[in-house]
Amino acid sequence: MRVLLPLGLDLAYDYRPPPEMNLQPGDFVEVPLGTKRRIGVVWDGDDAAPPADPEKLRTVHGRIDLPPLPASTRRFIDWVSRYTMAPLGSVLRMAIATPSLFQPSRPVITYALSGVEPERITGARQRVIDLLRDGPPRTVADIAEAAAVGDGVVRGLAEQGVLLAIENDPDAGFMEPPPDPDTQGPVLSAEQQSAASALMARIGGGFAALALEGVTGSGKTEVYFEAIAEALRRDPDGQVLVLVPEIALTNQLLDRFETRFDAKPMAWHSDLTGRARR
């Protein structure tokens, strides 16, 4: 079997699978390389590896307890390597570059109201209570930002028992509820509707590139939102990737998305911690 290592290598290396282990393409495995152990991916790409002497093959140490790398991602890595003429292993390294990927997950702690009244009420504490009374459990950072208070206010309420800590599986996927494409948005002008219709007509028709021209404040974002809504109507289980030119614009866009679709999308950028990006 072949294993691609996240190193500057053009080819996957041949290894002998353990007899008691049924390994499949995409599985993360630990293998010997020289005097060290490395983590790689069982590979089924089209790299033209020369045949290896079975007697010289070293044995895979074991499987890493992670979901396998999907076939679509493996083929994308193959394509990027060919298109950019970059070593296949280097492209794999970029695809799995989050250091915490191979570390055990730690639960994400969110907080909800417990029903216990605080010893003393202040304006800051009241804002936290009002926020959680009308919404789902949140992390300390989310509560502090939304209620405009310091982390200490939130932690103080937790220490008094006013807030109940809830452990959440960090690998559980996207937050609920899912976005609602039929949430009423702003009424589009005739020009905006024409642009939105052009975008929506391309959905489901394969790759297409369109440029939307408009000055700042002309409503381009709402046009894109209409296209996103149509994509979600056609495939409620689908996903939409929105690229933002600057990290500084992320929170602004997340807030607008939440208003339009009644759900906050997941953000992914270099300012997030490794655990959050995982």
Question: How would you sum up this structure, described in words?
Answer:
- The protein is of the alpha+beta class.
- The chain folds into three domains: 2-97, GIY-YIG endonuclease (3-Layer(aba) Sandwich), CATH 3.40.1440; 108-168; 190-277, no CATH class.
- Helix content is 34%, strand content 12%.
- It is built from nine helices and seven strands, in the order βββββααβαααβαααα.
- It has helices at residues 71-84, 88-95, 123-133, 140-147, 151-159, 190-202, 220-234, 250-261, 274-277; strands spanning 2-4, 13-14, 28-33, 36-43, 62-63, 108-113, 163-168.
- The strands form two sheets. A five-stranded antiparallel sheet has the order 2-1-4-3-5. The protein has a two-stranded antiparallel ribbon with strand order 6-7.
- A hairpin with an 8-residue loop joins β1 and β2 (13-14).
- The protein is flat.
- The protein starts with a strand and ends with a helix.
- The mean pLDDT is 87.
Key words describing this protein structure:
278 residues; alpha+beta; GIY-YIG endonuclease; 3 domains; two-stranded antiparallel ribbon; flat
